[in-house]
């Protein structure tokens, strides 16, 4: 259940949000992202496509782990690397042009976390950061949708299956994921390539392709975690 309310300085001046990454909310192995995040993500994890379970539409996402609810970037010391906007925004939403918050979210309270407003009623840097993130997300979702539609129209999407073995004898397979069809990309006519370049899509495509190098690197990270034993409990 949710209890969505428009953020208001009078009604919510005492509200605080536990904004730090935590297993309860960030333990996800695949998170939807927008194209503006590709440069930040491509240096740490694979960027792939998946199909929304409800609509069947393609979404761009960051692969953060190899098993369900596994996030290899989430440690007791905090998030290691760039944290996607979908997770940064926490319990916040947009309702029309307004910023809203889910008052029933477990991260929302009055006793711990980042305050939304200062004593004088001014927005805190944390809340301003959330507003900036939401302002980036909204148009970013539309641009990402157009990018995916272009890939589909040019038949540049192909399935990819990732199968890995780990030092403890376990195996993990990531199915129902998609990447760029490099053969189809090379076969594109010059006019299509030029159009992709001018729209900024060619850079995004190459970032997706380059990000695949992180599959073995993340496997090494997982093996290192397995060799050191269970992580200390979160505080």
Automatic annotation (TrEMBL):
One family name in Pfam for this protein: SapC
Alphabetical list of InterPro entries matching this protein: SapC (IPR010836)
Top-rank taxon, per record: Bacteria
UniProt protein name: SapC protein
Organism whose genome encodes this protein: Nitrospirillum amazonense
